[in-house]
Each structure stands twice: as C-alpha cells, then as structure tokens.
Design a protein that fits this description.
The chain is mainly alpha-helical. The protein has 8 helices and no strands. Helix 2 (about 20-35) crosses helix 4 (about 60-75), helix 2 runs parallel beside helix 6 and helix 6 (about 95-110) packs antiparallel against helix 7 (about 115-125). The termini are far apart. This is TerB family tellurite resistance protein.
Length: about 150
C-alpha cells in the first residue's frame, strides 16, 4: 500500500491525487516533523492524533490507523518534497498556512524547539509556497495555543 502511494506521488499526473493521498501526505509530514529531532515524544503523537481527528473528523480508531500508515510512509520516504508537493497541489493557500500552523503545534508539543525542526519548518513553508510572514504568523498562533 505504501509502495502504491509513492508510485502515485512520483507518477506524471494530469489530475490531482485523491483526498486520501492528501490526508496521508499531511499525516506523514506531521510525523516527519515530530521525528526530526530524533525523539518521537508521546506529546507529539498526541498532538498529531488531535490534529488528524479534528481536521478529518476521525474517531480514535481512524486516527490511529491513519497515523500508523503515515509513520510507515514517513519512514520509507526519501525526502519531504513528495509530501509537500501533494499538499500544495491539493490544498488552497489559506489552508496551507493552517498546515504550517499544525506542523508548528507538533514541534512545540514537547516543549523543545530544536534547530533541525526550525530548519525543516522553514523548508516546508517554502515548498508549500507559504510566505515567511504567513509562516511566522502560523508559528505565533501555534505558540499561543499551547
């Protein structure tokens, strides 16, 4: 299943991928951000689960299944570009700023903001086409919601 997902992400596309692929791409990106500092904290996992439950209106079993699939996809993904490209193609700009805010919520969930996380968020915002100003605003909103 993960191999099929990556085939769809890398294939020449004339139409956007389905909502399920965009969901998996966002979930995998959330997992990637959480794992960036080398510590996949329970507080980060809990935050990912809350984000997925709220964004996609999933019950606990649905959230757990999506996160597990995302963990596997993230572990196999050679780079972040594949996830961000899918999100950028599937999500309007204003919602991409919400994606950046969600990523910052995960980064800040464990109370530690490491340099690798900062670097990944800067790169991800750029790949998603989110301006520096909007990215900074998303970070501030995430920090104030902690």
């Amino acid at each position: 299943m993960i191999a099929d997902f990556f085939k769809r992400l890398t294939a020449a596309q004339t139409e956007p991928l389905g909502d399920g692929d965009a969901r998996l791409a966002l979930a995998a990106l959330l997992v990637r951000v959480a794992r960036t500092d080398g510590h996949y904290a329970p507080s980060e996992i809990e935050r990912i689960d809350r984000i997925l439950a709220t964004r996609y209106r999933l019950d606990a079993d649905g959230v757990k299944a999506l996160r597990r699939e995302a963990e596997a996809a993230e572990a196999e993904a050679p780079d972040t570009v594949r996830f961000t490209r899918e999100i950028k193609d599937a999500v309007p700009y204003e919602d991409r700023t919400a994606v950046i805010e969600a990523l910052w919520q995960v980064v800040l969930a464990d109370g530690d903001r490491a340099d690798p996380e900062n670097a990944l968020l800067r790169m991800t915002a750029s790949l998603l086409g989110v301006s520096d100003v909007d990215s900074a605003g998303a970070r501030q909103r995430a920090a104030s919601s902690q």
